[in-house]
């Protein structure tokens, strides 16, 4: 009986995770209080591409990336592979620190726990060090190591890109 | 003691059962241990990134080659999608879950339309950008066409047009456009792509998992693994019992 309940919870959790994608437009509207600026494009210079590769720990396929920004905040929607499928993550950066980070689309069968606020709240006010590491440790989730790593990489990338667009 | 009485006593011995079933369970225990340890380190051993290509294993999984798939001709090559794998001629580009609805060559880049995304690739097949509704795209795309210096897409929300840099999409009041039609890939290429896609479906990790659980051999395999689990459980319990009895005897 107990095993049936556990299996049901896992399946329901996975189904819930699959079916609660957040449309990117909604994330952007929420990030800018409905006053969404025009999208801009950041072209990755060779140096930036090298740093991106170091953060992702695999060759970056990006040549340019889209962002939305005003004087103090920027929003990024980036993908990174968890275990096999890409996870789409939205990051809002305010004055060089993470204001919000959200999973917009999760396509894997496990590791979906990273979409919960008990995990994403850890990224609040996190900044980037000189060595492109986050300036705070993020506690992982057992059994979701690859998803956790993907989110940390995206957080670092968004902060790096935010630095790149600021004069 | 008579031979018959000795035989009866022998088979009532827990030790005899423990020994006999232990030998039987050995092969299952070895298999479960090896596959279990490999699965524990699947990512580190890249088992989730390498795929089986053995024909008889793929046949066992009933993974058949795809017989029909969409292709779109561009001046720089044929864009095809087989399963979730996108190709430029015979070169693998990337994976995408959405279906291919069109592709064209525009201003030194490939513009690939999927069900609700647009992918831009440079001449080397490197990803420039993947666009979705945050770029102004409608939710469901049907086709793609080239205009003078822009790109058009047909969708569930009408015709949309890009800006010249293909950064944003806006509704367009365009009635007629030369929508790109799919073509049939040459037979040799079709066979090669179908084979390549077939060999990138089942990972080694998946194979090990199915071996570990018995699922590779269907319900019978699962039952055998369940029985071996019970066997190992019996061995553990009987072993502890025998040990405690021996210990008590020697005190």
Describe what you observe in this structure.
Chain A has 167 residues and is an alpha+beta fold. Chain A is 37% helix and 22% strand. Chain A contains five helices and five strands; from the N terminus they run H-H-E-H-E-E-E-E-H-H. In chain A, strands 1-2-3-4-5 form a five-stranded antiparallel beta sheet, with helices on both faces. In chain A, a hairpin with a 2-residue loop joins strand 4 and strand 5. In chain A, helix 3 packs antiparallel against helix 5. The longest helix of chain A has 21 residues. Chain B is an alpha+beta fold and 251 residues long. Chain B is 38% helix and 24% strand. Chain B is built from six helices and twelve strands. Chain B has a four-stranded antiparallel beta sheet, with helices on one face. In chain B, strand 5 and strand 6 form a beta hairpin. The longest helix of chain B has 32 residues. The mean pLDDT of chain B is 91.
Mean pLDDT of chain A, as a whole number?
Answer: 88
Mean pLDDT of chain B: 91
Measured as a percent range, the helix fraction of chain A is 25-40%
User: How many beta-strand segments of chain A?
Assistant: 5
Structural class of chain A: alpha+beta
| Tertiary shape of chain B | elongated
Main sheet attributes: strand count, strand direction, barrel closure of chain A: 5 strands, antiparallel
**Which structural class fits the helix and strand makeup of chain B?**
alpha+beta
Radius of gyration of chain B: 30 Å
The largest chain-to-chain contact, stated as pair and per-chain residue counts, equals: A-B, 20 and 18 residues
The strand line-up of the biggest sheet of chain A is 1-2-3-4-5
